[in-house]
Design a protein that fits this description.
Layout lengths: L1 H38 L6 H27 L3 H26 L1
């Protein structure tokens, strides 16, 4: 129990940093996408694929944060919520990757 009390805040901090990195990647990708749309007319799917790659990278960061959060989950309800978020983010990442392949 003592290890948990010491390690839990560290794990939550790491998860927060990973989520923050995911948000930064999304903001950066959307900014680049917007600038490219303003500077040039949309050239098909090339720009959209670039945005999708930023979204997939951010989802990876956020998925990592949720996996770390499972270490800290104490109750079955918390674990169920975290597990559901992991499944949803994984499915969203898969859908985006399939969209990029097309």
């Amino acid at each position: 129990m003592v290890f948990y009390d010491i390690a839990a805040p560290a794990f939550l901090t790491i998860a927060f940093i990973l989520e923050l990195l995911g948000i930064i990647v999304i903001c950066y990708g959307v900014g680049i996408y917007t600038i490219k749309l303003i500077r040039q007319s949309p050239k098909g799917l090339a720009i959209s694929h670039e945005l999708a790659s930023y979204l997939m990278l951010s989802l990876d960061y956020m998925l990592g944060a949720e996996i770390i959060r499972t270490v800290v989950a104490r109750t079955i309800e918390e674990l169920t919520i975290v597990g559901t978020i992991i499944v949803l983010r994984g499915a969203l990442g898969y859908i985006i990757s399939q969209e990029v392949k097309e």
